[in-house]
């Protein structure tokens, strides 16, 4: 069965501090991992996906198949990073349904 | 970029009535759309996959006779909550996958808040 676990419901850090949002998954096939973000009063939107291997808004995430993890990191948090972050998984191959983690609410304190 | 709209953004209905929620892809075609449900302070749970020209595929535990899905065209999917009850009150979100190189990305609608009194 597909499963995504985000162990932290809430995470609070100070501006300028490093941020790491944890995500672990279980999936028997070849997964595609995503981070979606939801800012206050906005719709869910893609932040990044593992196959792109890109940095978006200073965030990066590396897929670690050995540890089945896809942690989201940013070296210096900014206040505008405060949002709800969801890790999600789908079967590799496009146009597939997503399984979401429980979400982590990140708050950046000034 | 690809935009998905939902209508209405919120609706209040009485117990026992039916409510229809529309999901539209505004500037692209979507043969597949997904319907999610989100309870307060919880994650999104996939309810069903809407397929243009064929029957929807429901996730385990979702009553297909209660949550009717119709994918009438390449840009429109509807979710009808039939004989709604207070426990159906929730936030309903649809999404559509991108295309081409962005096929694995999902574009989400803004959601519809349903309150059943």
Structure notes:
The complex is a heterodimer of chains A (110) and B (117). Chain A has 110 residues and is mainly β. Chain A is 0% helix and 45% strand. Chain A has no helices and eleven strands. In chain B, strands 2, 4, 5, 6, 9, 10 and 11 form a seven-stranded mixed beta sheet that branches. Chain B is globular. The model of chain B has no long low-confidence stretch (mean pLDDT 92).
List strands and helices in order, with pairings.
The complex is a heterodimer of chains A (110) and B (117).
Chain A: E1 3-5, E2 10-14, E3 19-21, E4 24-26, E5 31-38, E6 45-49, E7 60-61, E8 72-74, E9 83-91, E10 99-100, E11 104-109
Parallel strand pairs in A: 2-11
Antiparallel strand pairs in A: 1-4, 3-8, 5-6, 5-9, 7-8, 9-10, 9-11
Chain B: E1 4-7, E2 10-13, E3 19-25, E4 32-38, E5 44-51, E6 57-58, E7 67-73, E8 76-81, E9 90-97, E10 106-108, E11 112-116
Parallel strand pairs in B: 2-11
Antiparallel strand pairs in B: 1-3, 3-8, 4-5, 4-9, 5-6, 7-8, 9-10, 9-11
Binned, the helix content of chain A reads: under 10%
Name the average pLDDT of chain B: 92
What's the tally of helices of chain A? 0
- Report the end-to-end length of chain A measured between terminal Cα atoms: 41 Å
Question: What's the assembly state of these chains?
Answer: heterodimer
Helical residue percent band of chain B: under 10%
Helix/strand structural class of chain A:
mainly beta
Shape of chain A: globular
Q: How much strand content do the residues of chain A show?
A: 35-45%
Largest sheet of chain B, described in full? 7 strands, mixed
Low-pLDDT segments, ≥5 res of chain B: none
Distance between the termini of chain B: 37 Å
- Gyration radius over CA of chain B: 14 Å
Main β sheet profile of chain A: 6 strands, mixed
Q: Report the strand count of chain B.
A: 11
Give the averaged pLDDT of chain A, no decimals: 92
Number of helices of chain B: 0
- Contiguous low-pLDDT stretches of chain A (5 residues minimum) are none
Order of helices and strands of chain B: EEEEEEEEEEE
Output the helix-strand order of chain A. EEEEEEEEEEE
């Amino acid at each position: 069965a597909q499963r995504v676990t985000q162990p932290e419901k809430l995470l609070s850090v100070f501006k300028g501090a490093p941020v790491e949002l944890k995500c672990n998954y279980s999936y028997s096939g070849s997964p595609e991992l995503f981070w979606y973000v939801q800012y206050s009063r906005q719709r869910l939107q893609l932040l990044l996906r593992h196959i792109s291997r890109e940095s978006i808004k200073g965030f990066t995430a590396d897929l670690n198949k050995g540890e089945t993890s896809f942690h989201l990191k940013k070296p210096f948090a900014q206040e505008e990073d405060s949002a709800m972050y969801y890790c999600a998984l789908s079967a590799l191959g496009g146009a597939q349904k997503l399984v979401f983690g429980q979400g982590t609410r990140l708050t950046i304190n000034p | 970029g690809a935009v998905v709209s939902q209508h209405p953004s919120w609706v209040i209905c009485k117990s026992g009535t039916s409510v229809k929620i529309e999901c539209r892809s505004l500037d692209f075609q979507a043969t597949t759309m997904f319907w999610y449900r989100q309870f307060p302070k919880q994650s999104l749970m996939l309810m069903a996959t809407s397929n243009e020209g064929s029957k929807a595929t429901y996730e385990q535990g979702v009553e297909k006779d209660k949550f009717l899905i119709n994918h009438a065209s390449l840009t429109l999917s509807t979710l009808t909550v039939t004989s709604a009850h207070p426990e159906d009150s929730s936030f309903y979100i649809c999404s559509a996958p991108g295309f081409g190189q962005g096929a694995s990305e999902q574009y989400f609608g803004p959601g519809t808040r349903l309150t059943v009194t």
